[in-house]
Each structure stands twice: as C-alpha cells, then as structure tokens.
Amino acid sequence: MAIYRRRITREKVLQTLYAYELSKEPISTIMETVLGDLKTNREDFEFAKKLVAEVVQRQEEIEQIIRLKVAHWEFDRIAVIDRLILRMGICELLHFPDIPPKVTINEAIEVGKTFSTEKSGKFIKLRLEEMERENVFRLKRIKK
User: Fold this and answer.
1) 20 assigned to some structural domain
2) 73-85 pLDDT, tens per residue?
3) What CA–CA distance (Å, rounded) separates 77 from 99?
4) Which is nearest to 6 in space by CA: 38, 52, 36, 53?
5) I need a labelling partner for 104 at 20 to 30 A (CA). Which of 24, 83, 110, 120 fits?
6) What are phi and psi of 80, to 5 degrees?
7) pTM of the predicted protein model
C-alpha cells in the first residue's frame, strides 16, 4: 500500500513541476492546488513538498548532470515530461539517501510509462541506471 501511495505522490509531484514549467506561476500556489489532496496523509504531503522544493531549488545542478548524460541529444528536444522525471529521479538519488536507488529508478520508469510514452520508460531507465553504475550519486552524497 505504501508503494502505491508513493507512486501517486510522485505523479502529483510531476504534475506540480509540469504546471510550474509551463506557467511559471509561484510554486507555492501550484503546490497548494495540485498537492492539496495529499494533505490527508502528512508523510506523503511532506515528501511531495520536499521533492518539489528540492527539484526547483537544484534545477541548474540537476540539468548539468542530465546534459552530461545526453550529450549526443539536443537537450531541448527531450520531451518536457521526460526531463521532469529525470530531474525528479536525479534529485531523489542525490538528496533522498533513505530511498534505495532501485526504488527511485523503478518509480521513475513507471511514472514515465504512465505520463509519457513506453519508450520514455526505457530512456529514463538507461539514463538513471548509467549514472548509478558510474557512482555519480554516491560521489555527490559523500561531498555533502
């Protein structure tokens, strides 16, 4: 049951980030609207708020990592949803050490399949697993 709730929470985070990306309205306003129904479960709501805040605050750092791993792609041609899911996954891997990397990667894949395309799941999986294999995230966590 907790895994299902976390998936729903990640989906709400994606919806929040997507609305922010398109509208550039204040993130607090968007969070109140999109995440509002998560308030019935304090743990889910707090996780969602923290993930949204970290992704927005660390967007430049995260995008540098993405650009390194998709050097042969035109960054702006990567689907917005796929970029947002990569940002979320990378943020979790870097700044949420209590979540096992495999859980983060699997959740990112599933959210990608739901909100983007079947191919998006594979694209996201390859990028995140490659970074994990190269210990990119473990090295970043040590530097803290």
Assistant:
1) yes
2) 777 788 999 999 9
3) 30
4) 38
5) 24
6) -55, -45
7) 0.89
